Amino acid sequence: MPELVTRERSLSSEHAGSELGTSIDGSRPNSRKDFEIALICALRVEFDAVEALFDEYYEPEHDFSFGKAPGDPNAYTTGRVCGHDVVLAFMPGMGKVSSANVAAGFRASFPDIELGIVVGICGGVPLGRDDEKEVLLGDVVISTALVQFDLGRQYVNKAVRKDTLQDNLGRPNLEIRAFLAKLSGSRGRTMLRGKTSFYLEELCEKDGFHKSSYPGADNDKLYRPTYRHKHQDPDASCICANCHGPHDDVCAAALEASCEELGCHDSELVNRARIETVKLATQDRYPFYGAGSGETQKPAIHFGVVVSGDSVMKSGYHRDDIASREKAIAFEMEGAGVWDTFPTVVIKSVCDYADSHKNKKWQRYAAATAAACMKAFLGEWRQAR
User: Fold this and answer.
1) From the centroid of its chain, how far is CA 188?
2) Where is the composition biased (Polar residues) (predicted)?
3) Angstrom distance (rounded) from CA 115 to CA 21
4) Mean pLDDT in the chain?
5) Using N-to-C axis directions, what is the helix angle for 363-380 and 174-183, rounded to 10°?
6) What value does the mean pLDDT take over residues 312-330?
7) Is 3.30.70.1710 the CATH classification of the domain at 37-222+295-379?
């Protein structure tokens, strides 16, 4: 890995621009038509991380602006990332409708966008596709396809997704499929993982991002899919005492309480080989992982189907059911709204396991990791000239 790190540091220096936005070569795009890459974030924590990794900013002091099309409500940040002219937009809300509106604004103001990247945080499927790879908090998911899980029919006993040619989202275009196939290979994945780790460390050293470092393996907890987030005391004076299955109700207070407050037992945690390996690193047995509490753990990169919808997935039982049917590795809420507007890739980092025990402890780190992977991704992307 020393050669890779050396190359990354050289690459970082090559693309590093002035914090004030002065162009490295004295040039910037002539018009909005020269921008070909759109970056979209739904949460402030996501937007801040992506914006912080720009190599330069084209509109630093408001003395110059590319403007936007009449009627476009979006607010943009323009700049350069790894040699690419990019434009970043912060969504006013979460979900498909909001992302679709933002994408429409992009299309009006920046008509030659050839690649859209939805960057941020997501809920992960712990065992990944076909149980091949354990997914840990902070790992990055890159979409090879997108499925709308909340477009369908609700019956008395179950929901059935509409699965027709007209209702399904199309495949990524040939250029994106070829590029993802290259990146997902052994060499490409190793390179992408190394660069992501490098940019993540670089980001965590910036002012305002010191709290975005790795929260520690001991805080990466995965409970059995059917183990509910409720008051665990069997004598609890609320409906939680009668909750014994995946469809039973829990009290409103339990929905907002932490696992510590509810007494969720560690005896219900799922044993995972990879997280145990990472924990050993905190005992200095494997120092090359760099995974001690508060340090940066090198996240893995996973490629696969991502499920998109307006509902926040907070059920391990339903997570595994949908993931099994769709062969999905993650859940998110914005990709489907952008997908049909321009060629799109979702790059998101796992901040929870899409179950009832989810919390916000990992959001800062996950947002930083996704932003770092986005930059590593663009470092390999080649545009037709």
Assistant:
1) 19
2) 20-29
3) 23
4) 85
5) 110
6) 91
7) no
